Automatic annotation (TrEMBL):
Alphabetized GO MF terms: DNA binding
DNA-binding protein Rv2175c wHTH domain span: 12-53
Occurrences of domain Rv2175c C-terminal (ranges): 61-115
Domain of life: Bacteria
Source organism of this protein record: Micromonospora polyrhachis
Protein name, UniProt field: Excisionase family DNA binding protein
InterPro entries, sorted: Rv2175c_C, Rv2175c_wHTH
Coiled-coil residues: none
Length: 116
């Protein structure tokens, strides 16, 4: 059996772009990251957020819960991002993609199982 391969996010947003899309202040975006409502990683020294995790003018509904479960299971930001973007034929797609559809609860269940 082959190991799942991480898929790159479709696009990236800088924190000011996230603030604009969510119509909040940049300090609110920083707070959302601190409070695990949103994930950001450094790329070339700039913190960025995967674009598909910010749907329209909101954060994906189940993302904060999934992030908290991953962090509670010992994942750091990079590991959580890698998990969110691992190709999974049973979803189909990636957990990040599934958060936008009817498989979001399954993603949350799988993240919860990582803690055991």
């Amino acid at each position: 059996m082959t190991e799942p391969v991480p898929v790159a996010p479709a696009g990236w947003l800088t924190l000011p772009e996230v603030a604009e899309r969510l119509d909040v202040s940049i300090s609110k975006v920083h707070q959302m990251i601190r409070e695990r409502e949103l994930i950001a990683v450094r790329q070339d020294g700039i913190r960025r957020v995967p674009a598909e995790l910010v749907a329209n003018s909101t954060v994906r509904k189940h993302l904060p819960g999934v992030l908290n479960l991953l962090y509670d299971a010992g994942y750091d930001d990079d590991a959580a991002l890698r998990w969110l973007y691992l190709a999974d034929a049973t979803l189909p797609g990636t957990p990040a993609e599934a958060l936008g559809g009817d498989r979001a609860r399954e993603v949350k269940r799988r993240a919860q199982a990582l803690g055991f």
